[in-house]
Amino acid sequence: MKKVMLKTSLGIAVALASSQLLAAGFALNEQSISGMGTGFAGRSSSAEDASTVYGNPAGMSRLKREQVTVGGAAVIAKTDISGPGSNFGGETDGDMVPVVGVPMGYYVKPIDDHWSVGFGVYVPYGLITDYGSGDAARYWGKKSKVEVVTFQPTISYAFNDKVSIGFGPTINRIKGELGSNLSSAAFPGFLGGGPDGEVKIKGDDTAIGYNIGVLVQATDRTRVGLTYHSMVDYKLEGDTRVSYPVALAGLSGKFDASLKIKTPESVDFSVTHELDDHWTLYAGSTWTRWSRLESIVVKNEAPAGYPLQTITEEQNWHDTWAHAIGAAYKVNKEWTLRAGFSVDQSPTNNHDRSPRIPTGDRKAVSFGAGWSPNDDMTIDVAYSYLWEEDTKVNNQPDSPTEGALKGNYQAKYENSAHGIGASLTYRF
User: Fold this and answer.
1) 403: nearest Cα among 78, 86, 142, 72
2) What is the span of the domain harbouring residue 404?
3) Residue 302: DSSP 8-state
4) What is the DSSP letter of 334?
5) What are the Cα distances from residue 72, in Å, to 69, 292, 370?
6) Which pairing describes strands 253-263 and 266-274: parallel, antiparallel, or unpaired?
7) pTM (predicted TM-score)
8) Which residue, among 234, 251, 240, has the nearest Cα to 301 in the 3D structure?
């Protein structure tokens, strides 16, 4: 029994890592509002404002004036859930994703004709799901809250008018809070049902990575950019709390837990082509090495003889590609209109998908506009709508005892989301 309980509680810790690794679904792409308007199609080649600190640090060389870009986006997700749900009963209303805010801020200062420095703070990952105490999914993932904030000091160097490079170390802070229910039906005296137990885990870590990029002015009207976002190696430290409203000897307690996880590297390639004085076209692709996430190893600090001090959970994720195309039309000196379309693969598979990460392949359309009332200021706004293919979750217990603790859960998810963003760029 203790073995099953420990496996269940630390399985929540596994979810803490895996839930912030989404390539689709609840992943956050919104690090630039000007880029959001074109579906991020020219992320590594456009270099239109200080947000290039993230998109391609080499792009800072194209910014000839000191400037700051600040803004934010809101992601409004909607999920429709259908299917049998849990054999323990419960609701399946799908209302489990609150509005997620995504702030961002960047600063770039040219030093001379070759050197530029900059700084950025942004949110690359964020997840909040709360199924509630009466939802059918509560035993497999009642609540998940993960936030990652990245700080990036950056430098770029222009060899000439054609070629520039940029580099910035990233300081990444991750915080997570996870919760899940456990049925009391597994224990003698509660076979007919009883109050649920509860598992909560909190963890955090700070880890270092880096972004590096190159930008080439291939022709007078065509730019090519390539950006590499490095792997980030986390070791989350936290605690797992198991509690029951009634005394069940040897089961309630608090455990120190830790796990190591490597977020994968990605390569972003894009092309920006100025068709004429009005039209600009964008195209880009991003490859992400999600196959790094083959398994997650969780270590629990427990007294000698306590079972499952080390737990390995298979994930078997796969590498993904995302593609995007976009266009911008410069109406006049003050106004620019934008649009884009993108597709993004999910790294998950049908066997391992859970209510915490019920994500599938996605498509998105985007629209945006930029208004420059003068040479010193630009206001950008953007809207995007994304939808995912229908995905199925089929969580089955590994043993009869685990089945009594968590039951089974089967459901079909139809996910969509609206994204709204605005930013202000001011040039000194």
Assistant:
1) 86
2) 2-427
3) -
4) S
5) 10, 31, 15
6) unpaired
7) 0.86
8) 240
Structural domain count, the chain = 1
Ranges assigned E (strand) in 264-390: 266-274, 279-288, 295-301, 310-314, 320-330, 335-344, 362-374, 377-388
Task: Kindly state the tokens that stand for 249.
Answer: 């000897």
Amino acid at 262: K
CATH code of 172's domain:
2.40.160.60
**8 A C-beta contact, residue 81 and residue 93:** yes
Give pLDDT tens digits along the chain (428 positions).
333 333 433 343 333 333 333 334 455 778 899 999 999 999 999 999 999 999 999 999 999 999 999 999 988 888 888 888 988 888 887 778 788 788 999 999 999 999 999 999 998 877 788 888 888 898 888 888 878 899 999 999 999 999 999 999 999 998 878 888 888 766 666 555 567 888 777 888 999 999 999 999 999 999 999 999 998 888 888 887 777 665 554 566 777 888 777 778 899 999 999 999 999 999 999 998 888 877 766 677 766 655 445 655 667 788 899 999 999 999 999 999 999 999 999 888 777 788 887 888 999 999 999 999 999 999 999 999 999 999 888 888 877 877 877 889 999 998 898 999 999 999 99
DSSP H or E segment with residue 341: strand 335-344
Q: What are the tokens at 174?
A: 């991750």
